[in-house]
Every structure is written in C-alpha cells, then in structure tokens.
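Hey, can you fold this?
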Amino acid sequence: MDTMRDRFAPVVTRLLDEDPRVAVVLAEIGADGFAEAARRHPDRVVNVGIREQLMVGAAAGLALTGLRPVVHTFASFLVERPFEQVKLDLGHQDAGAVLVSAAASFDWPAGGYTHMAPGDVALLDTLDGWTVHVPGHPDEAETLLRHAIAAGDDKVYVRLSVQSNQQGLPVDGERFRTVREGRSGVVVAVGPLLDAVLAATEGLDVTVLYATTVRPFDGAALRRATETAGTDVVLVEPYLAGTSTAAANDALADVPHRVLGLGVGRRELRRYGQIEEHAAAHGLDARSLRERIGSFLGAATAA
C-alpha cells in the first residue's frame, strides 16, 4: 500500500494543472516530487530552500494575490519552527493556505527529536480559525487534500503520516463517523489510530467514533453518542495526549462527564527505535490501549 505522502505530490500536481489558483511552496523537502510540475508551472511551484520562515511568509504573499498556496515540509519545520509566521503572516493578515505536513509525531525515529512534532495540533490550537484534518489512510488523505485546497481561502492543516489503518473510510472533512455502537462509554479514535482502537475495544460494550477532522471538533457527534453510551469519554489521538480534552469538555459542559485523553506523552524518548516501538512506549499500541481504556471505563464495558 502506498503512503499518504505518496499521494500528496501526484494529487497536488493534478490540481496545479487543473486550477490556476493553486500554488505550491516548498523548503527543499519534497521538491523532487514536484520537479515536472515546476517545469510546467514555474511561477506557481516555489522552492525557497531551507528557509521555513520564508516558506510560510511567501505562501502568505501568494495568498494575498489571490492564489491558493499549498505549503509542505515535515511537521516540526512547518508548524513549530515558523510558528511566528503562521501566527502573523497567515493568521494576523487573514491569509488562507493549506499546510500539509509529513513525519507526524514520530514517523522517522532515526531523524531524532528535531524531526518529531507531537505538539503540532496543540500549537495550532492556540490560533483562531484553523481547520485540522488527520487522515488515517491514503484514500482519506487524498479526499481531505482535495477538500482542503478547494476550501475557498480558509486556513487548513493536513497532517500526513506513514502510520495507516488497513482500510480507508468515507470522510467529509467535517463530521465524526460512528464505526461501533455500545452502551458503556465513548472512545474517539483519531486518524491512523483507528485500527489499534478497534482491536483494543474488541468485545467491550463501547461506542467508537472515528475522527479525521479534529478542528472544528464535532461536539454534536460526541453529544449524540453519549446519549446512549454514557458520558465517560476516551480520546485517542496520534499527537500530544490531551490535545482535544478541552474541546470534549466544552461539548459536554452541561452534563456530568469524565474525559481521558490518551496520546503521545510529554516525556522525550531518547532511544530511537522503530515506529511500533515508539507507539508502544507512549501506550498507543492495542494492548496498552485496552488496559488504559478498560481501567478508565471499568468492568461495565464487558459486552
């Protein structure tokens, strides 16, 4: 199976050919995938070199001229390093762009902590007006990329990962999807963690919601689920643990409830192994998730 990032350059290249508003801004990473597109559209495929702050600033400038810039590099260099430009050049100027990241929280462990960004969604959450897509499969990534680029002049973040579920599901860029119904709790699985959550909750009497768009947070779907499954909620996110806890609390503010936020821990792992080892170390493998979800929801979750 190809990866989400394998889909990125071909999809955006087709959109460059089809839509004269689309532009691409790179900082070396990913440039090879756009070599032919750059020959066909030299004015709309821009590689600024290893200058991530300039990359975001250039994208904002293109947006202010009426173009729809797609900006791509690793998440740590796309959100964290040029955060001031994301905040000011895009946010303060109300300029729209599509930020498309790679490497996610720990997709390339050999690259070390400089190439990991578990705090990216939480950091964007300090800003107003961002839509955040977290696909869990290459098919979903393609759908959400097209949705994001077509979304007028909005500010959109698309978080790509080499981690993937076995099968893609229909996604609409807005709502959570119910994939399992139960009566003793709600588990929200985000993006590529759906398969692990389904394995972890096998035989448990819980509702599982699947989220590939986390901002805006679909509080209405969560409320509907709690009407039959109860108001104990577990959030399982492939980035910093607790990133969406406040959003879930806000959705259920008028009813007694409990929320457990699971995700990447704050403790830095200084021994870089394989992706699966990092997932297990953060308690995001199926076995660990079953223990943590079961402990929180209690024995009543047994079907």
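Oh, and this one too while you're at it.
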Amino acid sequence: MDGTFGAGGYARGLVEAGAAKVIGIDRDPAVHGMARDWLPGFHGTIVLREGTFSELDHIAEEEGAERVDGVVLDLGVSSMQIDTAERGFSFQKDAPLDMRMSQSGESAADIVNGADEAVLADLLYLYGEEKASRRIARAIVAARPVETTLQLAEIVAGCLPRQKPGEKHPATRTFQALRIAVNDEYGELARGLEAAERALAPGGLLAVVSFHSVEDRMVKRFLQIRSGRMGQGSRHAPEAEAEAPAFEMVTRRSVEPDEAELALNPRARSARLRVARRTAAAARRVDEHEIGMPILERRSRKTGEGRLRR
C-alpha cells in the first residue's frame, strides 16, 4: 500500500520491483485527476483510492486484501502541491492562504484570521517549533485580515532577524505549522501507524519517510515501543506484563539521502527513512502521548479557556 500516492512514484517503483498489486491512497482530488492519464497503462496492478492513510486497513479490506505485504508513507506536503502556487503551500509566489490537501474544510486563512492570539502562538510553537511564536502571533492579529501567502510571509519576516545567505526563509516554520494544523498531519500520522500495524501481514514491511524532527520522533518512538526497545506506560504505575513486539527493526537508525540522491533531488535533504518488519503479535491502540505527538487544545475565543498539552 502506498498511503501517500502523490504523483505515483512509489507505486510505480513497487510494481517495477515485482509487487503484484499496489493500492494507492490520496486525499487530494488533483492527484486523482492527474492519475487518470497514466493509470490504465498499469492494467489494474495499481489501484488508486481517495481517502487518508489512517483508513488504509479498511481500504485494503475493501480491495480484497485481508492483510498486505508492505506499507509506505512519505509524510508532509508533496512537490506537486508546493509547486502549484494557487494551493497556498508556498511563500515563494503570492496566492490565497489555503494549504488544504483535500481542498475542503478549514483553510490556513480561517486559522490565521479566526484563532485567538494565544492559540495561534501555541500552534506556531508546537507544530512549527517557532521560538518567536508569540511575537509572530501578535503581529498577525494586528494585521488581520491576512489573506495571501506573501502577506503572511512579510508579516513573519518583519518579526525575525534579517535572513542571511543560505538560511531558510523566516516564514518556513510558520507555514509548516499552519499546514500541519490545517491537515491534522500529526493526528493522521498516529492513526496511520496504528492502521498500518493492523493491515500488515506477519513479515510485512512498514517504511516511513519523514521530513522534520517531530514526525521523525513520533515514528521512531512508535517503532521503539512496538519492537520492545522502549518501555511502556508510566514509571509510577504498577509494572505491567510486557506486550509481545509487533515489529522488528530493520533500520536501527534513520537512513538519510547520500550525495548522489541529493544531486538528483535537493528537496530530499531533510528526509529520514525508517523501516520495520511486522511480527505475528496482535495489533493494539497507539498512545499519542507515548509517541510524543504534539497536541493543541483550542481555547474558547470568548473566554480564552483551554490549555496546551505536549
């Protein structure tokens, strides 16, 4: 299963490597429109379904696969989405502040213009690891309404020191945080790892590519816990019987791109790959706290009540 189908690169690579069938999943309607031009040439060996990878076990069953031999997840925004300026993922060109992978639901503009200043600051700090989150949130609220990508990028840049040659754009972390919030990417990842565990047959492989530290930490902790390499539960609670490992680690450390790959694909610079093999142990629920998932609790706009959980 290719849980993040995009332009279909993984799916085609898997078929070329010998997979009898690949079930692809993507929530972006644009992906499905593009795939219609080339999918027929694979004569049913690649099937594309609209949905999210947190549903992959149910989608597999609907496609007649009680268990699958592999699951690949390539997290985050795709190059296709970044390069389509009107989708609002990039600060390189002016466009509506959108960032919705599914092209439905709450947009980045809705969050930027509707959230409390404190909630917005928490979101930027927790999802984007932005140290100047409170300063940026204050500036955004003062500038409302904020409707375009360049308008937001200029507000953020005005809150931070001038960019030096070779440094990331000052708005990088803010845009990352908003994209993650709009698409519930951390929640989707936690549920997707759980779904992959349910879907994989014994001996099946889970391969996850992440692009920033929080995602990679969540994947790492999940695999450490599920392979028995990290303790479970609170140290203050009575000692419980250890669960049978659901995975065996294939890569002990994350695999990073080499110079040859970076020469072909510079966007892979921050990519980290982790791979594990499924055992016959029973699947179980994911504890979001144990795997280090950042959790933002929205405050009431009227009272400001609420709190941030980490």
